[in-house]
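Tokens in:
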């Protein structure tokens, strides 16, 4: 059972940050995951009155407030046009519309959950987080950062030429994913993200530069590189077993989803 001693709807991020310095204080997101746990909270901090529930677009970036519902990202035309529909695809299997109307991107990103479709998707773009105290840092750095008492204010997606494809494997439509995968070309950079391993999502390091210059390869070269990289990733991405799948099955899925997503990014299959 979740027990809250006091509740404060803050009037500024500075007030929220000050309240959050107590170890037993907690910032509320959409409350869809938090309410399922057992925890004693001295001060529940509500950011819903600060106008941080919108997606704003500039010439250079998308600025997404931490309290923006996942549903808003799912239906945002400009963001999905930029991401070739991959953002929508990464969200549409998360329980249901009512759930996605409550769950927030801030809660999803801050939690860095091992099952997170959202984290797998946003790691595959040039995404930064804006923290009240620490300022802007890349999501690739934030994902491995130790949790502290800072406040996540915005998620920023910097606009770069982008080709991206998101896929997941599930045992049933609205269940947690067995494995998630996003492949992307951010400018000239090839990036692959694997999530629900069942640990938090990771960017697969291409230490052998197998996908380097992928954008300029012929289709034959791309297919050969994809096959080689899929085998490489399966050897280097750590997986584990749980009630949804074994480690061996997840390792097999790493190869399958990497092939499919990169074929889509390469234009060899119209899947994004």
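Residues out:
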């Amino acid at each position: 059972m979740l027990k809250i001693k006091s509740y404060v709807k803050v009037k500024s991020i500075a007030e929220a940050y000050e309240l959050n310095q107590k170890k037993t204080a907690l910032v509320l997101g959409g409350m869809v995951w938090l309410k399922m746990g057992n925890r004693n909270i001295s001060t529940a901090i509500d950011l819903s009155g600060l106008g941080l529930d919108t997606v704003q677009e500039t010439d250079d970036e998308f600025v997404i407030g931490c309290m923006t519902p996942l549903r808003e990202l799912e239906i945002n035309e400009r963001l999905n046009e930029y991401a070739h529909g991959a953002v929508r695809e990464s969200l549409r299997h998360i329980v249901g519309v009512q759930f996605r109307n409550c769950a927030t991107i801030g809660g999803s990103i801050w939690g860095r959950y091992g099952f997170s479709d959202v984290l797998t998707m946003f790691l595959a773009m040039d995404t930064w987080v804006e923290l009240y105290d620490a300022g802007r840092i890349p999501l690739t750095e934030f994902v491995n950062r130790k949790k502290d008492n800072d406040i996540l204010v915005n998620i920023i997606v910097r606009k770069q030429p982008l080709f991206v494809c998101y896929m997941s494997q599930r045992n049933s439509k609205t269940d947690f994913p067995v494995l998630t995968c996003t492949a992307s070309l951010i400018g000239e950079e090839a990036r692959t993200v694997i999530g629900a391993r069942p640990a938090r999502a990771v960017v697969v390091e291409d230490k052998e530069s197998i996908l380097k210059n992928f954008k300029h390869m012929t289709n034959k070269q791309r297919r050969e590189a994809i096959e080689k990289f899929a085998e490489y990733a399966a050897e280097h991405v750590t997986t584990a077993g749980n009630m949804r799948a074994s480690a061996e099955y997840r390792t097999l899925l790493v190869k399958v989803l990497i092939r499919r997503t990169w074929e889509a990014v390469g234009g060899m299959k119209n899947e994004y």
